[in-house]
């Protein structure tokens, strides 16, 4: 079946409405989604697509997972928000489940990924002053070129992407940038004032960039030698996406100082994020130091508990590893003159299109016409990141179409 685009009339009208009344800070494909289930979505004209982006890994469990929907509905029938001025019945059990899943002591719940990153930065700096003894106002955090950690003014201030920064300054000082994947450059950037190293174990937005073998382990060891917090942003790579619970396990690391989580923690339903760390690190926060109106609310906690349980009960980590290997294998077997490189881990896969074959976007548009939704990242890269519940038959279905488009 061929989905012919020109978006249908109803879709066209809705796109025009969004264009007229919305700010233009995104450039979406011309698809208006009306309904979703599992790995599939439907547009307003009833055309069906396989979701190969999964809301940037926020939908690892698939769309509208029945167990997560059930937890949401049950909780909505009891209490949804209390404010943190009072306790709620669900937060304790949620924090217990989350820290057990992560193998860490304590967690601090927030809402969006960017808020979790901000929380991690605040904790790191305070730890630097109170525990490490860095002179007040001097703490440095090392970050990587081509990073993506969110869109707040502080976070875009240490982006290397010109468009993310342009017109938004002045920016927060205290960040030192090093090239991603270069251990020697990382070591050279360390000073007595370094409090933390903030990084992604695979740079998803950067174009699915996988660092060289041993890089993560090398930075981890250096951080511990120099008493620097290893701040692992697993917002996109966590919860099984890369075929491990957390991507840092690929370098044998089981105990990062800080795990920064979001996206799939909310089960594709609700924004839930968290920083998970040791008591020494998160213990720097005293009542009143930090907070969020919606952070840790009962609805979020009930949804996140169910989201974690689904990852565990359905074995989605192992499934991601197996399906990712199958998918990558199939992609490698497509003999396309346009492909520069195929890379990734688990079900986070980037197909790098050769410069001379033009940008990735037209390929994504052709895939959409064949019923596959994915989106280019960084001009040349098509990212394939379907929900982790996908099976081999559906991957074969995708591969057939990808082969057609890349021929
Ligand atoms: C998406 C993402 C963020 C930001 O999360 P939001 O929920 O969009 O604020 C931060 N870090 C990484 C690695 C991400 O992929």
Task: Give an overview in words.
This protein has 2 domains: 46-61 and 316-406, Aspartate Aminotransferase, domain 1; 66-313, Type I PLP-dependent aspartate aminotransferase-like (Major domain) (Aspartate Aminotransferase, domain 2). The chain contains 14 helices and 15 strands. The protein is 37% helix and 17% strand. The chain has helices at residues 9-21, 54-57, 66-76, 91-102, 113-132, 153-157, 162-165, 183-189, 215-225, 279-282, 298-313, 316-333, 361-369, 392-406; strands at 33-37, 40-43, 48-51, 106-110, 140-144, 175-178, 194-199, 229-233, 258-261, 273-277, 339-345, 348-353, 372-373, 375-377, 381-384. It starts with 8 loop residues before the first helix and ends with a helix. It is globular and about 60 Å long. The mean pLDDT is 96. It is α/β, with parallel strands linked by helices. The chain has a 7-stranded mixed beta sheet with strand order 4-10-9-8-7-5-6, sandwiched between helices. The longest helix has 20 residues, at 113-132. Helix 3 (66-76) runs antiparallel to helix 11 and helix 4 (91-102) runs parallel beside helix 11 (298-313). Strand 7 (194-199), helix 9 and strand 8 form a beta-alpha-beta unit. The structure holds pyridoxal-5'-phosphate. Pyridoxal-5'-phosphate binds next to helix 5.
């Amino acid at each position: 079946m061929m989905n012919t685009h020109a978006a249908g009339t109803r879709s066209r009208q809705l796109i025009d409405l969004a264009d007229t009344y919305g700010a233009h800070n995104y450039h979406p494909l011309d698809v208006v989604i009306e309904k979703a289930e599992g790995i599939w979505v439907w547009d307003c004209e009833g055309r069906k697509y396989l979701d190969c982006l999964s809301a940037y890994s926020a939908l690892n469990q698939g769309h509208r997972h029945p167990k997560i929907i059930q937890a949401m509905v049950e909780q909505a029938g009891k209490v949804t928000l209390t404010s943190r001025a009072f306790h709620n019945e669900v937060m304790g059990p949620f924090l217990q489940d989350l820290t057990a899943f992560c193998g860490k002591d304590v967690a601090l719940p927030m809402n969006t990924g960017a808020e979790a990153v901000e929380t991690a930065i605040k904790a790191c700096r305070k730890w630097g002053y109170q525990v490490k003894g860095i002179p007040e106002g001097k703490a440095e955090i090392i970050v990587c070129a081509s990073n993506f950690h969110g869109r707040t003014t502080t976070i875009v201030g240490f982006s290397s992407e010109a468009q993310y920064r342009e017109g938004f300054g002045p920016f927060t000082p205290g960040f030192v940038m090093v090239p991603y994947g270069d251990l020697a450059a990382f070591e050279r950037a360390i000073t007595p004032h370094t409090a933390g190293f903030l990084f992604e174990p695979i740079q998803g937005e950067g174009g699915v960039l996988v660092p060289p073998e041993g890089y993560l382990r090398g930075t981890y060891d250096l951080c511990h030698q120099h008493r620097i917090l290893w701040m692992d942003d697993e917002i996109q790579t966590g919860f099984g996406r890369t075929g491990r619970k957390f991507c840092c396990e690929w370098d044998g690391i089981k105990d990062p100082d800080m795990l920064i989580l979001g996206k799939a923690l909310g089960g594709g339903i609700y924004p839930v994020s968290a920083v998970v760390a040791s008591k020494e690190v998160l213990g720097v926060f005293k009542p009143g130091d930090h907070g969020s109106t919606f952070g840790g609310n009962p609805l979020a906690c009930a949804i996140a508990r169910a989201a974690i349980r689904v990852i565990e009960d359905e074995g989605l980590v192992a499934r991601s590893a197996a399906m990712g290997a199958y998918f990558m294998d199939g992609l490698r077997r497509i003999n396309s003159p346009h492909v520069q490189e195929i890379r990734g881990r688990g079900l986070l896969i980037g197909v790098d299109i050769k410069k001379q074959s033009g940008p990735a976007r037209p390929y994504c548009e052709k895939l959409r016409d064949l019923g596959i939704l994915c989106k280019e990242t960084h001009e040349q890269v098509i990212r394939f990141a379907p929900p982790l519940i996908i099976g081999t038959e559906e991957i074969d279905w995708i591969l057939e179409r990808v082969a057609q488009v890349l021929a």
